[in-house]
Amino acid sequence: MSDDPRDISDKAALRILARQRRRAFMAGLDPLAHRLAFKALPSPLAKRLESARTVALYIGIEDEAPAQRLAAKLIDMGKAVALPRVIDRLGSMEFLLWHPDAPLLPGPFRTRHPERGEGPVSPDAIVAPLLGFDRAMNRLGQGGGYYDRAFARHPDALRVGLAWSAQEQETIPADPWDLPLHMILTEVELIEGTEP
Q: So where does substrate get bound (predicted)?
């Protein structure tokens, strides 16, 4: 397998390379830079979220960009925050309201989620983890289709990818069912795509 992502059209092979690149980036990242990353919302993203009532985040696993760090700022803006709950291994998940002080329950694939409470909510914005992204706003996920299905179920939601800058690739192959992201936030920049 080549180390040049431009030579890779197979998503499975690209996932392996993306995990290696992310792991290497994280190993060299200054601990202070890590602690400070993703604690603020850039003003263009905050502006796009003004009309959102509920924003879905995720709890970062291992070296994923930590979306949960955005929760305090979103709550200060008057937003409700939700987290995904994986329902089954077929790609189904729902979003449940969450507050950073609330306990989380273990879920499949080392995920954690809130209590079901009042049941699932429909987010106005979905912040999604990813393994890789490109400037065409394509997202390479883990391969389970959970976020592809969530984007399809919530077509009017703002789709935001959260990633470390090292996760950018020249090109991410897109299948017909892949919906492009509207924005991508890294620790160094906000990349804006099309309007929702």
A: 59, 64
